[in-house]
Amino acid sequence: MTFISLHRPSGFWQQLAFGARKQASVIAALMIKDFKARSSKGRLGIVWLILDPMLMLVMMAGIWYVIGRTDIEGVPVFLYLSSGLITFSIVKQGISSVPTSIKANSALLNFPQVRPISCLVARFLFEMFLMLVTAFILYFGMWWIWDLLPAFNDPLGLFQVLGIAMVFGLGLSLLLGVYGTLYDSVAKLSHLVSRPLLFFSCVIHSLTDLPTTAQHYVLYNPITHLVVSARIDLFNLQPIDDVNLVYPTIWAFSLLGLGIVAYYVNRFRLIHE
Amino acid sequence: MIRLENVTKFYLTPNGRHYVLRNVNLHIPHSARMGVLGRNGAGKTTLLKLIGGVDVPNSGRIIRNGHISWPLGIGAGVQPAMTGVQNARFCCRIQGVPLEDIPAIVEGMREFSELGKFFDLPAGSYSSGMMSRLKFAMAMAFDFDCYIIDELTAVGDASFRNKARQAFQEKRERASFIKVSHGLEELAKECNCGIVINDGVVHPFDNFAAAAEFYLGLVGAEPERETEDTDFVVSKRNKAAMKQAAANADRLERRRRRMHKRQALLAPDTAEISRLTPPQGPAGKQQTTTMRTPAIASLGGPLRTSHRPAPMAPRPKRETDR
Description:
The structure holds two protein chains of two kinds.
Chain A: E1 4-5, H1 12-39, H2 46-67, E2 71-72, E3 75-76, H3 77-92, H4 101-104, H5 116-146, H6 155-182, H7 184-194, H8 197-200, H9 212-218, H10 222-235, H11 246-272
Antiparallel strand pairs in A: 2-3
Chain B: E1 2-13, E2 16-28, E3 33-38, H1 44-52, E4 59-65, E5 72-73, H2 84-94, H3 102-113, H4 128-140, E6 142-143, E7 146-150, H5 158-172, E8 176-180, H6 184-190, E9 193-198, E10 201-205, H7 208-219, E11 222-225, E12 232-235, H8 239-266, E13 271-272, E14 288-291
Parallel strand pairs in B: 2-13, 3-8, 3-9, 5-7, 7-8
Antiparallel strand pairs in B: 1-2, 1-4, 4-14, 9-10, 11-12
Helix pairs in contact in B: 2-3, 3-4, 4-5, 7-8
């Protein structure tokens, strides 16, 4: 049997670097573990993970085609819906997939290197990576098959929107990851609340399709601002006065701060759960 | 070396706090091969988790020098959805093993565990004995300074037990271990000291026989040898024997209290197992990990610190104090 000796450095900075490297390897190991666990579920395995959002897109676009509309605000339905779906999914992972990661990896918390936050961060990064791959395949496919490509009139603005969406998603992940693990009712309630979010975030329709009163209420939802902003940056649409990025940014960083505090306060309880 | 200073651990239950360990002071030297005894639910696993760094005390601190293994228990440590190979790789990755070394180590684990084709199947399909083989193989692949074993070697067939014993004999040359097992004879063969946990109090003994005697007195039982198995089993057949055992326990407890009082006068707050051989661990690997009292207590969170003032006289200044 091959044995390995584990040598730790003695200096402060060397120990810090050693610890950081070790945590990075823990997160990488958890990501690989997540990938293997997901991909070994069926014969098609990982293909389903990427196909799943695509099928949802086809289904939603099909409804529009049945109604008789091939474009929304002058943008082909597929392109229009895909942009909203990707932005929304980044946030949605913080409610659906990431919070379950602590319970899913509970057996591995027996290793002192694996902490509950490692599980949350690893799952979040894995989901973001998966989303990136899905978005690339989606847009490449649409360009290949239908010659559809977004205008990308403001790429930096788009990165900004996606960045805020990621911070928003991470904040939700931490908050719901902590309290969803400690209290089952929180996890169930969050799933229940998030269901109609798809409709209240203007993912499958445009903001201007709604009556003015409804628009007023829908704009209280920070995800709506992110979805509409992403479309403006992608398709060169006319900016809407009430839509801005300050509002979702405040939400995103508030959620992240609350999430970090919630984790810090409950970090020992999470180990027992 | 592992040092526990005023360590208190409790769990929150619907009926309030359940104290598992109260103000425990313990010094475990490098050369210790320590057996941990106690009734079911006494806090043996909790103590091992605290020493292994998996859990944290509610108050007090634990100073750990050197590389200490994760607690090798029956319960956790292997992800059932992953195969044996995947679990082995995961273990290597989180230990910070360079990528190029992982295949050789995993093959070593495959060989040691003797799981054959099951090594490539999900761990959820393993029997408890197979799971123990995998966990044991994973731990044996690394050179730790101290191994923490929570009844892991008690599971499995005779060949596995022999193999585990042999592996430990090799490791014993350069590593210490802390072991929980209900097999008293197994512990008596391997351990050179012992502790007994009872009602949140840790009773240290500098030889294992004394610990076993104290433990048997506590549980009100006498050792009985099974026909073939080497382990002791508890017998509760004879009422007279039970009474005698209870009387023994009382007598031993009184003696323990007297000894503690005497010890407290000599060395105020630390009961050291000090008559063991000097440290023989590999040089140049000293590193101190200190787990302090959770700072969360000041935020008024649910895990409040319950720091009881250290009894007896003020303790003398040590090198590790900061």
